[in-house]
Amino acid sequence: MDDSKFFYEKDPYYRKKVLSIIGCMLCQFIFGQCNIWGNIQVYVCSYLRQFDDSIQINQIFIVAPIQSLSLTVGNLIGTKLINRFKPRTIMTFGFSLFVGSQLLASFAQNLYLFILAYSLMGGIGLGMNFFLPVYVGWKCFPMRKGLITSMIMCFNGIGTITQSIISVLIVNPNNIKPTIQVEQGVITYNYFDEEVSGNIPLFFRIFTAAELVILAVALTFIWIPPYNLEQQDEIKMPWHVEQDNNAKLKIALSSRQFFQTYIMMFTGVLYFQYVSIAFKSLGEFHGHDDQFLTLAASLGMIFNVVARTVGGMILDKLRFKYYFGFILLMSITLSFTFNYFAQYKFMFLIFLAGTFFISGSVFVSTPVFYGKVFGPEIGSQAYAYFFTSNAIAVLSFSYIVRNYQSQLGYEGLLLITGVASTISFIDLVFLSDSQYKFSRYNLLDDVASSVYSGPHLSECSHEFASASFLIRKDSYVNRASNIRSHISMSILKSQLSDISLKRHAINMSDNRSGFGDYKQ
After folding, report:
1. Are 400 and 478 within one domain?
2. Model confidence, pTM
3. Domains of the chain: total
4. Which has the higher per-residue pLDDT, 508 or 356?
């Protein structure tokens, strides 16, 4: 191969990268299972009432918030393990916990054991793998973060749609209406008898078997390119020294952008999280049947998929503030008007579709924001801490639902979510979405801006342009003469004659004659 065409050779890992993206999509397909709780919670509550008839919907609402909190804890664990284990190893362990939790949940006969299995164990297992598919995708195609994030995350919505429909076909295939009614304050709860709710254990066991098969295929595809910027494949230039990742993470977590987005997320998720969990009980309260509500949720999830698919691509072209601002304005509008139109089937469909669109947009845009602002390595770790805002917000709101839903009603709770979304929008107005500049030790900082600061190749990724000059060492010797002929160091030598450049400790033994040899 001609040395001059080194940067234009066909990527030898392209096929493995594509297969890895497919594996990531299948993983997100399984993740969609955690979003169907709003569709199955009335079935699960009806089933648990066979053993304890004092359990009500407002009590079982806490299952999803606890799962979100566990998912966040697992996410923190997973991102910490990235630097020690390969993604496939972490995913295997995490998915083992998740699949095991589904099987254990099928045997639970009281609320606390169900929460322990489904919410805690399953949430931690899912959380350990929650961001890894996106991380793997960014590693495979670092220049297409928005597109890759959309491709992977949209399968979360596809998984939710598919599993929602299948769950109803297993549990309530004949569209039997609830036969048990319980009044509590201003709200009437509807429950199913044993003919329907008795299918819950079968539902979890069927899903367990299907998840094992899909995950076995997905995990065989997961792979990341063998490029590690901390290894010897990187020849760092002597004038530039980066901070380590731990120092960068601490800076990112103490930045204004982190705190603002944390508050924005905390207040901005309440509307869609509440409606996506409580839509069945809300719909039944307004007189809609079970099959219609399942259809409405499935159609709504199509909009969730659309949001996850196009959201990342839009963010490659549009500023985060504009896109997220539009999403928050939707949340504010729907929060204040949903309850007034919920009795009409067509309007219920429209409002629920908008709600799921908001949900998909939030979960696809925030990872892209963190990846662009802090970079893929620091962004993925900072996002794990940022995501705790979602869990804490939902868990806090579940306390209000459990204790005050019967007094406030659906209208009062939606009013609270509308006020919270307004606060989130105000916070967004003052948020900076520009790339965060980490400080670095640069020996050329004192030189005038007109000084030529070193060799650059336009073919290098912008993510590495100012940090390092990446060259595969096995081709370095053959390419040295070619590089020497294209990159002249005479300008640098003449203009920096009075500057002593210390040689980077890592490169003391590297022959860098093609770039010039700097000595004190």
Report:
1. no
2. 0.65
3. 2
4. 356
